[in-house]
Amino acid sequence: MTTRWLAPAKINLFLHVTGRRSDGYHTLQTVYQFVNLCDVLQFAVREDSEVHLKSDFKEVPPESNLVVRAARALQAHSGTRAGTDITLEKVIPTGGGLGGGSSDAATTLVALNEFWRLGLSIKELAEIGVTVSADVPVFVYGQASWAEGIGDKLTPVAPLEPWYLIVNPMVQVSTAALFAAPELTRNTSPVTIRDFMDGRSTNVFEKVVVARHPEVGVALDWLRNNYRGFRAKMSGTGSCVFTAFDSQEEAQKLCDLLPKGMKGFVVKGRNASPLYDFSG
Ligand SMILES: C[C@](O)(CO)[C@H](O)COP(=O)(O)OP(=O)(O)OC[C@H]1O[C@@H](n2ccc(N)nc2=O)[C@H](O)[C@@H]1O
Ligand SMILES: Nc1ncnc2c1ncn2[C@@H]1O[C@H](COP(=O)(O)OP(=O)(O)OP(=O)(O)O)[C@@H](O)[C@H]1O
């Protein structure tokens, strides 16, 4: 038996860093929303308790892939002797601030919980997930959320679900390096959901990333100069940037004009994660 599951990308509608914890992790405020740009994972039975990954994604060895780390964390937590063969098809750009690795890990936890019949709650899966990476819980819960803590204290919200043009400037940025940047603003005063809805929010990583990776600034400027309907933003710690439209056609029209060296994705904003659209 094989089951097929989706792992969607997320975008951050804003991102503030409010402080630093004693373990070095930063506290933040953000709003996560999903988009229908998805990696695809398949899980098949094995007779032994090994976890094997087959993937076109060769940037990291299988042992470091967040999919394998999530599966092993689930084995350790549950004590199961079950194993699995996993196939991962990457669609989401890596190091693009779209949370692809974390989403793959979250889908692995949700899928294997069913596949191995472990009966763990979503809350338990999120608690295991946050030890793999900070963005895993929101993908496990699967609802667009206002987030605090390290991104793991979640309150469901329902922002508009426009069409987005996500632009990949074709550079990869390291999340760890950006959180470590001395010039990063780490003490933004907490804002409220109302402040966010009234537009009083930003992405504090944008300036830092644009200074280090000029391609990101070029992509933001291009979007801002060629479309006035929405002020283009950067997602997460970059490198991807996005702008919003009422219709797929409008988004596609701008996508077709993108200069060489930038790759566009026309996607739909989703408050309910495509992870839970179907399984099997
Ligand atoms: C920037 C965001 O994408 C916003 O959604 C996330 O906060 C990043 O989450 P993520 O990619 O899941 O991050 P992780 O893989 O857990 O962490 C990578 C590294 O980034 C730093 N890190 C990450 C998240 C956080 N709240 N504070 C941090 O300081 C840590 O040095 C950590 O070792
Ligand atoms: N399954 C995976 N998919 C993508 N990257 C993975 C995976 N497993 C491990 N990684 C490693 O994790 C790092 C982060 O990948 P990811 O694509 O999630 O970053 P990101 O999109 O910038 O995420 P974020 O917004 O959470 O910072 C990459 O450097 C990559 O090599």
Automatic annotation (TrEMBL):
Q: This chain belongs to which protein, by name? A: 4-diphosphocytidyl-2-C-methyl-D-erythritol kinase
Give its E.C. classification number. Answer: 2.7.1.148
Function per UniProt: Catalyzes the phosphorylation of the position 2 hydroxy group of 4-diphosphocytidyl-2C-methyl-D-erythritol.
Enzyme type, top EC level? transferase
**Pfam families, from UniProt?**
GHMP_kinases_C, GHMP_kinases_N
Domain GHMP kinase N-terminal, chain residue ranges per copy: 65-143
GO molecular function terms listed in the Swiss-Prot or TrEMBL record: 4-(cytidine 5'-diphospho)-2-C-methyl-D-erythritol kinase activity; ATP binding
What is catalysed by this protein? 4-CDP-2-C-methyl-D-erythritol + ATP = 4-CDP-2-C-methyl-D-erythritol 2-phosphate + ADP + H(+)
What Gene3D superfamilies does the record point to? 3.30.230.10, GHMP kinase, C-terminal domain
Q: Annotated pathway, please?
A: Isoprenoid biosynthesis; isopentenyl diphosphate biosynthesis via DXP pathway; isopentenyl diphosphate from 1-deoxy-D-xylulose 5-phosphate: step 3/6
Q: Which family does it belong to?
A: Belongs to the GHMP kinase family. IspE subfamily.
Q: Which residues form the active site?
A: 10, 135
Q: Which SUPFAM superfamilies match?
A: GHMP Kinase, C-terminal domain (SSF55060), Ribosomal protein S5 domain 2-like (SSF54211)
The domain of life for this entry's organism is Bacteria
Q: Which Gene Ontology BP annotations are present? A: isopentenyl diphosphate biosynthetic process, methylerythritol 4-phosphate pathway; terpenoid biosynthetic process
The record's keywords, sorted A to Z, are: ATP-binding, Isoprene biosynthesis, Kinase, Nucleotide-binding, Transferase
Recorded hits in PANTHER family, A to Z, give:
4-DIPHOSPHOCYTIDYL-2-C-METHYL-D-ERYTHRITOL KINASE, CHLOROPLASTIC
Q: Where is the GHMP kinase C-terminal domain?
A: 190-256
Positions annotated to bind ATP: 93-103
